[in-house]
Task: structure prediction
Amino acid sequence: METDLIRIESATLTAIVSPLGAEMQSLRTASGADLLWHGDPDWWSGRAPILFPIVGKAPGDRIAVGDHEAQMRQHGFARRSLFELVAHDSDSCRHVLRDSAETRALYPFAFELAVSHALADDTLSVSAEIANRDNRPMPFGFGFHPAFAWPLPGAEGMPHEIRLDNGAEPQLARLRDGLLPPDRHPSPFSAGRLILAPEQFEADAMIFPEGAGSGLRYGVPGGPELAFSFENLPNLALWTIPGAPYLCVEPWHGMAAQTGASPQIAERPFSLSLAAGDSVRFAWRVTAHL
Result:
């Protein structure tokens, strides 16, 4: 199995992808500017983890599928699993994780998770395809968790903001002890615009279960910006540690378990149930305007 870091490039961007978690390690412009967070463990060692088969925490860090119950850490096991490189050319790569005795002890399904990274000019595309290889419905959640530089290169000292393409003001959800209470808070967006500040993250992530839409811009209007689009990912989270030099823009299909809920994966908000033999695709894309 290929365990080396994989490099892909376009005329304007270069990305490095690790087989561990199929996690992108860097995204760099032709001029050498880093767009992706570099994973300094003094803040947070992640860079762009893949979240499967759950997003967020489970009650007591235990999940259940029917009568099967097991320990499962936050965001699932894919981020700590070694994927197999199955395709690689100059501007794209594809890694696959298949079930094993180790995964089935935690999550009792035969599955295949394929993660693809591709570059074209100033755009990165990341997709995930999940196939149920079992003979029964498979419940799960899935999410992306990429972290980008805050401030962006060339925008040092400038206020950064998030602008939703749909101009909405989605309600805010906040975690409590890692789980999701039912109450919602007023939107921090005004006509789709949120000016970012470190103190907004003192209560952990800002989560928008519904209404954030399928695209946004992060950065400085009229200056450096990253333009995102999302496919089949209805939930959005923004997260950093206050004062850390990164911002995670996280599109999900699935969220943390609700406060007081059972450990059943099927009962988690926005969980999916994939029929035997079926597959489903999720994707995000970012274009750099620097």
